[in-house]
Amino acid sequence: MILREWRAEIRRSERDAYVDYVRATGLAGYAGTPGNLGSAIAVRDLDAERSEIVTFSYWSSMEAIAAFAGEPVDRARYYPEDDKYLLTRPDKVTHYEVLGDWSPRAIAQDG
User: Fold this and answer.
1) Among positive and negative, which fits the CA dihedral 56, 57, 60, 63?
2) Are 44 and 52 in contact (CB under 8 A)?
3) What is the pLDDT of residue 104?
4) N- to C-terminal Cα distance for the chain?
5) CA-to-CA distance for 77 and 85, rounded, in angstroms?
6) CATH ID of 2-110, from 3.30.70.100, 3.20.20.70, 3.20.20.80, 1.20.1180.10
7) Contact at 8 Å (CB) between 50 and 9?
8) 3-state secondary structure of 65
9) Is the torsion defined by CA of 66, 11, 23, 54 positive or negative?
10) pTM for the full model?
């Protein structure tokens, strides 16, 4: 399994609106792509003005990621209104090989 991680900084005052936008665009795009195994959004406030948003998506293979992201697969994919919210716009995402069972149920059983 492959974990795809994307992160950027956003205006803290628009945090909730951007999270809703990412759910409607990026996470919906992940879910609609064969080979996507799930996704999550994480946010944290950096200071009074900025927050960081991170999306995590889980994939069966790099080929499945390519079906979503195109080539090269480590290029970040953006949607039309992203620039309205983003303070940073990274060009690249990071991929990790996931080892073991990542499901919440498996984690709770191990914990």
Assistant:
1) negative
2) yes
3) 56
4) 22
5) 15
6) 3.30.70.100
7) yes
8) helix
9) positive
10) 0.87
In this predicted model, what pLDDT tens digit does every residue of 61-82 receive, in sequence order? 999 999 999 999 999 999 999 9
Going 71 to 40 to 87 to 21, the CA torsion angle's sign is positive
Calculate mean pLDDT across residues 45-74. Answer: 96
Domain boundaries, the chain: 2-110
CA angle 19, 26, 100 (to 5 degrees): 95
| 108 pLDDT more than 50 | no
Phi-psi region of 2 (alpha: psi -120 to 50; beta: other; left: phi over 0): beta
Reported as a pLDDT band with limits 50, 70 and 90, residue 17 is: very high
